[in-house]
Amino acid sequence: MGHATSTARATLKHNIVSRLLYFGFHFSSLNLSAFxxxxxxxxxxxxxxxxxxxxxxxxxxxxxxxxxxxxxxxERGIRLINHNIWSPLKLKTQExxxxxxxxxxxxxxxxxxxxxxxxxxxxxxxxxVSKAAVVLLMGLLGMVYQAKKxxxxxxxxxxxxxxxxxxxxxxxxxxxxxYRERGVPKEKAKxxxxxxxxxxxxxxxxxxxxxxxxxxxxxxxxxxxxxxxGESDPDxxxxxxSEAHDIQELADQLQxxxxxxxxxxxxxxxxxxxxxxxxxxxxxxxxNSSVAFVVPVVNYRWPSLPDSLIREDYRRKLVQWSIRFxxxxxxxxxxxxxxxWLPSTSTLERNPIFFNDxxxxxxxxxxxxxxxxxxxxxxxxxxxxxxRDFMLAFGKWEFDPMDLSNPYPQxxxxxxxxxxxxxxxxxxxxxxxxSGKLPWIRYHEVxxxxxxxxxxxxxxxxxxxxxxxxxxxxxxKPCTTKVLP
Length: 485
Hints:
single chain; 485 residues; alpha/beta; Rossmann fold; 2 domains; 8-stranded mixed sheet; 8 strands; AB hydrolase-1 domain-containing protein; AB_hydrolase_fold; AB_hydrolase_1
């Protein structure tokens, strides 16, 4: 009997999860109220109503609930259950995190939720329940259930099981940082540039500068794997500040001298902001030289960002939900990005929600981002690195970039931001606001550019000419009269 009961319950759970997973994973842009969450859970168990049918051969084999309500108590049974399940909702909405609420639902017990559903079926069918909230929460709870046993352990590195083939330096804390050199030899270079890659990329990133320009100007490029990426060791104590220290130590050990440049691309921009904040302007340090941000991410938690500018930005909600899962439910996030039943990471590729037409054309010609594939994401070291990188970029910083003062008051060097006007990952409105708050930044805008402008013909050359020579192209000056997207 015990084995049959276990089998029946396992079958029942499989049916529930299958139905939950089928519906509503696009919950991140929905602002669910406590009322919607409460009503949504009432039909959480739609998938089990067949199991309660007397004709179901498994129905009699299911274990009975531990608590059997007497007939006179059935009338107030739902109130007792509601008291146990919904007690967190007595708090203010902002005090109840999504993860806490979900875990409370799960621990409250599935049998009780079935009873609530059955007793409230007429109310549910009355149409007073937000169907969107119901469907989306069903999907969310299904994912949580499926992922509870998939918590990923921290590992010793993304390249733990791969032989090291790149040049590396050993940092003061014992970690190794892998790097790659391009362009003219360092000893003959007139300009030395450190390139900081973004999320899912590495020191193998492409920066499409014409070879003729590299040779004529004498440019030396230093690319490196940020902590945990590629063949660099992870940093268990990694912070926004430590990113700047890694760059400084890399430059010192490779003897780049007192004047070099830094270009941060996309997610690699938070490392570059960190340099502006934490590396002092003194001999043999970074800020005797210019800095360029290419489509830099904007952290919605920066205090200076006005609420009117970000309140309705759907990207902000996506980031908020992603941070919550990455922080409180890494197992859920790991399962979601590696499962094959429904599209997850694959939906990013060529998706017009994230890329404009020109970006999509670029994606057809490049190999993509190897670390963002499902095969790579199954490696726990890779997953942990990407998760930590995302949390640092969009988590709470120790400073607000818009409080920074001009690091070059005598105009001895410069800071640049390059942005695509049609960028759907980082909206142009935010970049214009940032550059407006920091008038010492030189702002450039690619008129038909998306998030992948670093792959566009001519853009990398324009970036280098502006950074190294101070040349400005009229075609990349922002058109303030143009209607914002």
